């Protein structure tokens, strides 16, 4: 049911919020029938939250999950990726039966609502590591149990690329 499904993205600061504005507009322009749910952190300013609220149906404030793994992130020359695991908060959106996560720098050019027909966990292989999936676009079913298990696994084993330690 479309009312129980949502596109989700994460915004950790006002710079990433600019991408979420473009993403939200592109989803609206392609006439999606799904809700738009935005995860934001405290670093997003209140004026920006107001702008985002015009396009996104729901804004949920979440804690920033930072890996603190500067060594591995330095190898990628992407220190900003330490907060990537903040995406895990998406699994707590249990008001939805299914979601499609899209990175805030994604632009939708045509309606992609058919992604909701995919099963959990559907994602494309990562171009740099084909045995891993790209976390920029994926289909998932929210579950607090899954959230808890993913967070615990991340704390215990870390991430090969510095995503969480």
Automatic annotation (TrEMBL):
It catalyses: [1,4-alpha-D-glucosyl](n)-L-tyrosyl-[glycogenin] + UDP-alpha-D-glucose = [1,4-alpha-D-glucosyl](n+1)-L-tyrosyl-[glycogenin] + UDP + H(+); L-tyrosyl-[glycogenin] + UDP-alpha-D-glucose = alpha-D-glucosyl-L-tyrosyl-[glycogenin] + UDP + H(+). It holds the Pfam family Glyco_transf_8. Keywords: Cytoplasm, Glycogen biosynthesis, Glycoprotein, Manganese, Metal-binding, Transferase. One of its GO terms (biological process) is glycogen biosynthetic process. SUPFAM superfamilies: Nucleotide-diphospho-sugar transferases. InterPro entries: Glyco_trans_8 (IPR002495), GNT1/Glycosyltrans_8 (IPR050587), Nucleotide-diphossugar_trans (IPR029044). GO terms for molecular function: glycogenin glucosyltransferase activity; metal ion binding. It comes from the Eukaryota. Its main location: cytoplasm. The keyword Transport does not apply. It is an enzyme of class 2 (transferase). Its EC number is 2.4.1.186. Its cofactor is Mn(2+). One of its GO terms (cellular component) is cytoplasm. It is found in: Cytoplasm. The keyword Cytoplasm applies. Belongs to the glycosyltransferase 8 family. Glycogenin subfamily. Self-glucosylating initiator of glycogen synthesis. It catalyzes the formation of a short alpha (1,4)-glucosyl chain covalently attached via a glucose 1-O-tyrosyl linkage to internal tyrosine residues and these chains act as primers for the elongation reaction catalyzed by glycogen synthase. PANTHER family: GLYCOGENIN SUBFAMILY MEMBER (PTHR11183). This is glycogenin glucosyltransferase. It comes from Geodia barretti (Barrett's horny sponge).
């Amino acid at each position: 049911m479309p009312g129980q499904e949502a596109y989700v993205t994460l915004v950790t600061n006002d710079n990433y919020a600019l991408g979420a504005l473009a993403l939200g507009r592109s989803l609206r322009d392609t006439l999606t029938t799904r809700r738009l749910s935005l995860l934001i952190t405290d670093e997003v300013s209140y004026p920006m939250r107001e702008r985002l609220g015009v396009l996104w149906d729901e804004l949920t404030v979440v804690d920033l999950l930072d890996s603190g793994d500067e060594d591995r992130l330095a190898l990628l020359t992407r220190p900003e990726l330490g907060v990537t695991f903040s995406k895990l908060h998406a699994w707590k959106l249990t008001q939805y039966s299914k979601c499609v996560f899209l990175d805030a720098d994604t632009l939708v050019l045509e309606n992609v609502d058919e992604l909701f027909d995919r099963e959990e966990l559907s994602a494309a292989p990562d171009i740099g590591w084909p045995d891993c999936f790209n976390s920029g676009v994926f289909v998932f079913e929210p579950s607090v149990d899954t959230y808890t298990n993913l967070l615990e696994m991340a704390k215990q084993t870390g991430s090969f690329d510095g995503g969480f330690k």
